[in-house]
Amino acid sequence: MKASEIPFKDALKFWTKLRFISFGGPAGQIAIMHPEVVVRQNWVSENQFLRALNFCMLLPGAEAQQLATYIGWRMHSTLGGIPAGTLFVIPSIFVMLFLSYLAVAHIDIPAVAAAFYGIQPVVVAVVIEAVLRIGKKALKHALLYGFAESTPGPLIMVISM
Questions:
Q1: For residue 47, what is the enclosing H or E element?
Q2: pLDDT digits (tens, 9 = 90+) for 120-144
Q3: How far is CA 99 from CA 94, 112, 113, 158, in A?
Q4: Which of 138, 155, 143 is nearest to 63 (CA)?
Q5: Could you say which DSSP state residue 45 is in?
Q6: Which residues contact 17 (CB under 8 A, 6 or more apart)?
Q7: Which residues form a coiled coil (predicted)?
Q8: How far apart are CA 27 and CA 105, in angstroms?
Q9: How big is the CA angle at 27 (ends 40 and 42), to the nearest 5 degrees?
Q10: 33 close to 22: Cβ distance less than 8 angstroms
Q11: Handedness of CA 24, 25, 31, 36 (dihedral sign)
Q12: Considering just the CA atoms, what is the radius of gyration of the chain in Å?
């Protein structure tokens, strides 16, 4: 199906639904997005999807959100890209606002303080996992590994643990 033939309303409905059903970080979100936009709806070809995904992996930031924005843009130009990208992040914004409110207004409650204290190692683990995952894709030569290890980033992560 050509991008110009896709009703904007259908695309908007899909981007809204995707954000509420996606889970598992970028890999899970992309795994949910792929069968819908490539197989069921045929909005983009397999080759277009994979090329866009590879490009998004090179960019800093959230791969799945960038991929959603690109596919939305490809289908309906800027009018499609903006809602696809925005609808993808809106639920996350509300979660962050709620957690920020809890941290500021109720940190004196022991259960809230314990929850925030307990989640710190999880956040560190998620960051380390992301660094390792991206490193496996980006570092193709021993010289690049040496360069990555000589930068302060890994040292800072080790010290912060």
A1: helix 46-58
A2: 888 778 777 767 776 776 677 788 7
A3: 9, 10, 12, 26
A4: 138
A5: -
A6: none
A7: none
A8: 34
A9: 15
A10: yes
A11: positive
A12: 19
Q: Show the tokens assigned to 132.
A: 């390792």
Query: Which token pair is 49?
Result: 């999807």
What was the pLDDT predicted at 11? 86
Answer yes or no: are the C-beta atoms of 21 and 35 closer than 8 Å. Answer: no
Of the candidates 1, 146, 23, 8, the one whose C-alpha atom is nearest the C-alpha of residue 84 is 8
- CA distances for 97 relative to 94, 100, 107, 113, angstroms: 5, 5, 15, 17
Q: What's the CA gap between 156 and 23, in Å, rounded?
A: 29
Average pLDDT, the chain: 82
| DSSP structural state of residue 1 | -
d(CA 81, CA 116): 35
